[in-house]
Amino acid sequence: MFEEPATKKAKLDPTTMTEKDIISDYINKIKNSKSNLQAVLSDELSHTIETTKVYIASIKDKRNISKAIQVLNEKLPLNELSHLKRVRKNTILLCQSSTVNTSTIEEYIDSKLPELKDVFELFSEIDVPSQAPKLKRQYTEAMKMWSCNFHPDIYLEKLSGDHFFPEDELNLHRTFMAIAFEAAGWYLKSTVKEITGDLLQAVNSSVVVDPSINSVVAVSFDNRLRHPVQHTAMMAIDDVARTQDGGAWTRKTTCNDSELSGIDMDLLEHLRIKFPDTKFGAKKFTSKEENIENGEKENTGPYLCTNYYIYLLKEPCFMCSMALIHARVKRVFFCFENSEFGALKSKAKLHTVQSLNHHYEVFTGFL
Amino acid sequence: MVEFMNQALELAKEALTAKEVPVGCVFTVDGTIVAKSRNCVNLTRNPTRHAELNCIDQVIEHCKTNNIDHLSYFKKVCVYVTVEPCIMCAAALNNLNVLEVVYGCANDRFGGKTVLDVSNFYENSYILTGNLMADEAMSLLKQFYKGTNPNAPESKAKKKKEM
Ligand SMILES: [Zn+2]
Ligand SMILES: [Zn+2]
């Protein structure tokens, strides 16, 4: 079904499309997308670097540089600006502007550092980066302002670039997202006759994958109209729980085989025909008690959604995004932004909140 | 209020006995308890089964059985929970437009007010009051964390604590 001609989409108008057209149109677009996925990074990484004001001055006699630095480091340490260098050519960084409590910087230096009286000239105030640059791009930007220390992070560099996933892996991600669309169409077909583009935007579906075996563990659809908490991610987490001999909500048709119990049986049959090359089912679950009986020290089997990926049609809301943190998901992929309640890009970036105990990565840019 | 929080604390104690994170919750409508539950994350192997969400399920079930529109019913609900609702539960309660939330102790790990104020993202948020019998709620949590979460993998059990 990925091979439908791309010309088809040109004549489609979302208001008159049938659900099958809409779904296969999106799946085509995703499969034919030429761009890599984009990570949603913290503001600190995605925004321009923040600045603060400092005083600088030139040194009259170069021979005084080392003495000046020694005195300054001792009496006016840089503290939170320690990523900045003290010296740039013959110019010395004196202190952060906010610390100066006299009317002029000259007075301040004279009163604080009498031993450096008359050492400096050409005092001025400039902007410098208030935080250490984390990316090369930020480093280049920072260096235009003032010399600073930089420790490149290869992974972060790659994550912020345009080539994070290799092409073969991208195809996997696109297939799993396509399954989320296929599932949405399958569920919608069972409830409504005519499906519009608006309706597809109003629902959500998700696919949970164990990337260690590239297998689909759960496929879940939104049930919020009947149960306001049953958003697709909440359903997905419960579906995964079922593959681990747990689960709180009952389903219509579930498989007795616990490895396949995260997917509705009829839907599974449908997906196996549509996606013959895709693997379905979780790794066999063993409880901690069983592991101990088997003489294993650590729980080696699945635990919650640890190391799992989830693919959602739509950016999850605050409830769902936090639920995915509780579930310890490794990566979240979504297709459409949720401008009203999206908690991973649109309204907030919950995955970048430092104080939370688990952080997943977020990717988007399927279309 | 104290009476409802006492009930919630009893449920939290029940959770502790069941080796679950001790959080208990009751929902009231017009001064009558309509739902009560506690955390059952380990039992269900579902990390979202917090006391508040269990109570929400009970209310929906109640509404379904009695042919009541749950959306208007939730607007009358007052929530008494021993620990500040986490970001997930706070968002769920905001989605449902509940009237009021009263909690015992703050939740510095996941709190939907303390860690990230979820109400900022909703037009009309509920009335939120904290610090009702906080010491009792906190002492239950401390008792739980003296042990370790029995279901987490060995290596993670010590540093990562569920709530
Ligand atoms: Zn949601
Ligand atoms: Zn919660």
UniProtKB/TrEMBL annotation, chain A:
UniProt xrefs under Gene3D superfamilies: Cytidine Deaminase, domain 2
Keyword line: tRNA processing
SUPFAM superfamilies linked: Cytidine deaminase-like
InterPro entries linked to this entry: Cytidine_deaminase-like
UniProt superkingdom: Eukaryota
Family: Belongs to the cytidine and deoxycytidylate deaminase family. ADAT3 subfamily.
Protein name: Uncharacterized protein
UniProtKB/TrEMBL annotation, chain B:
Limits of the CMP/dCMP-type deaminase domain: 1-114
Coiled-coil zones: none
Keywords: Hydrolase
Record CDD domains: nucleoside_deaminase
InterPro entries from the UniProt entry: CMP_dCMP_dom (IPR002125), Cytidine_deaminase-like (IPR016193)
Lineage top rank: taxon: Eukaryota
Keyword check for Aminoacyl-tRNA synthetase: no
Keyword ATP-binding: no
Pfam families given in the database record: dCMP_cyt_deam_1
Name the UniProt record assigns to this protein: CMP/dCMP-type deaminase domain-containing protein
Organism: Loxostege sticticalis
